[in-house]
Write a structure and sequence with these properties.
This protein is α+β, with helices and mostly antiparallel strands and about 400 residues long. About 30% of the residues lie in helices and about 35% in strands. It contains 8 helices and 21 strands. Strands 3, 4, 5, 8, 9 and 12 form a 6-stranded antiparallel β-sheet that branches. Strand 20 and strand 21 (about 255-265) form a beta hairpin. The longest helix is centred in the C-terminal third of the chain and has 26 residues, at about 270-295. The protein is elongated, with a radius of gyration of 32 Å. The N and C termini lie far apart (about 80 Å).
Length: about 400
Amino acid sequence: MDSAGGTLYLKDEDIKLVINPGSIEEGKKIQISLENIWDKTSDPVLNKFETIVSPTVRCGPPGTVFKKHCILSFPYNAVNEEWWEFTLLVKENFQDEWRRIKLGSDDKDIHFYLHNGQCVVNLIHFTNVTLLGYTINIMKAARRVKFGVFGKHSLNKYQLRVRTWNSESNMEVTEDAKLFGEKLVEMATHIDLLYEDLVVRVQDVNNGWQISEASKTQTFSADDLWTKIPWRVFKFTRSDPPSDVLEATISSSQATNVFQLKISCETRQENIRSKVHFWYFISALTVVVIGLIIAWTFDNFQAFLTSHSGIALFLSGLIVALITYSIMWKLVKSATPAQIVACVFLNMSLYYLGVWMCFGFVHPLTTVNIIIILSVYIIAFLVAVVLFGEIVLKFVPFIGLLGSVIFIKLMS
């Protein structure tokens, strides 16, 4: 900008900076920036009953001095203003301490007032700015926040994460949801919360889903509501008969302040099924190549490939892989982990037995060998499921077939 001045406006956040004509010297140009800082590491230290009620706004370059006052305006979320005390917090650089300016202060460089839900700041030099509120009466002072429910599903479970946050924290909440792999299910945009505990309950869960009694009710503390972006997790499991839709009511209450959100979540596992479909064949193809490379070191490899044992081994591996995949693909929509694991164990056990029978002439097939090898395989698979969850299902054929090749190598 130059001496003519101008306006910067962050539309989504409703933050505006006006550089009045004559604020910049004639013949001089300044590159002006306006930013909503959502990195909470820059937030000030708060006392009891204090909370940040606005975005933290950065005007740049920091420390830039103007000939006339510039006008910065941004929204705040304090409700029932007569029960609040407001203080403007300012600092020029990251390493500086926040300086407090009371409403009505006679500071010549920077002063502010509140009008129609906007904090209007007149400043002679650029700085970081945010509005702090102190609760005079905790029974009447309130903050207007968003209340949202985010969802994430796995094979036979669905998880709901309930959050409350200020409008200026939208970016932080969006990034947090991406980190957890969640999607927004439902949101209320204008909820007035007091400084007291918020009790959240899950009610009216439809048939096909269940949640334990112990986790149906959870509480947000008053301090968390005032100083953080708190969340609580509710975990659902499928029940018989299974349903592709999870429906429930999320009820929240503070004394007489009660509100509800009705949610409906699509929980079809088509995406997971397609991943299982893709990874099953990719991992099976990979292990065939690896298996051939390893098997090439066997004595009389070419003779083995053309023998009845080699043909039987190839066919048994192919048949078992197809059977295991087809059953998993059919059951993955509603199967429990126990059903899937049982399916895998059954088919892989048959495959191992087939391999041992083919190579019985090299090493005797004994009961002890069967018990030892199957036990090791089952324990290893259970540990993998516990540690890595459903991702293990992608590599079932890889684990089974590679294990078979290694076993053949050891036995021969």
